[in-house]
Design brief:
0% of the residues lie in helices and 57% in strands. With 192 residues, the chain is mostly beta strands. The strands form four sheets. A four-stranded antiparallel β-sheet has the order 1-2-3-4, with no helix packed on it. A hairpin with a 6-residue loop joins β10 and β11. It is elongated and about 60 Å long.
């Protein structure tokens, strides 16, 4: 229960190796190498679920949490402490992002391409897919509504490492920028 009493903070750290800690709509969200735990403002553990992810990573936007196994194929989507969807991709996951509405994006390898980005609705239905033959995707970010997607990728040209930033709106490419000798490794979508 979100309102159950707790003894306050600090709380005892969960067993296992900590992989990350973040705030999820007023909850402390802790990812370990074996579990996803959530604590309320009073320090009470309100959610604890085991996972089988070797390298769990998370993306949070408002009350939505996307957890994915970087370098493997599994993911899970939560609205606060309520599981909405989980599944497996066909290819290894590089990175992911979630919107306030539960739309989520996963960047993966692909059979015929270096990278693939797929955007799903909160029910796991595919909305859009893009394939990239010339770049490895390093980061994705969704706008709060999930209608806009920013993608960064790395490629080389004449021995120079380049980054490319791509912006999509409702599935259509609307802008792109290239950066010489720069590595874009993380994106955050601010505003709509």
């Amino acid at each position: 229960d979100l309102f159950q009493q707790g003894d306050g903070y600090p709380v005892e750290a969960p067993s296992g190796k900590s992989k990350g800690m973040s705030e999820l709509d007023g909850l402390l969200c802790v990812t370990s190498d074996s579990s996803l735990l959530m604590y309320n403002a009073r320090g009470a553990e309100i959610y604890n679920v085991k996972h089988q992810m070797a390298d769990p990573q998370s993306s949070i936007r408002d009350n939505m949490l996307l957890m994915f196994d970087q370098g493997a194929k599994s993911y899970a989507l939560y609205q606060k402490n309520v599981p909405l969807a989980d599944g497996h991709t066909d290819y290894v996951i590089y990175t992911g992002a979630v919107s306030s509405k539960g739309t989520f994006a996963l960047a993966t390898r692909s059979e015929d391409y270096l990278s693939q980005v797929t955007v799903f609705d909160r029910n796991k239905a595919v909305k859009y897919t893009w394939n990239y033959s010339d770049k490895v995707i390093t980061s994705v970010a969704l706008s709060p509504s999930g209608n806009k997607l920013a993608v960064s990728g790395l490629y080389t040209e004449d021995g120079i490492i380049k980054s490319q930033l791509l912006l999509y709106n409702n599935g259509d490419l609307v802008d792109s920028r290239d950066f010489d000798d720069e590595i874009l490794c993380s994106l955050v979508f601010v505003g709509e």
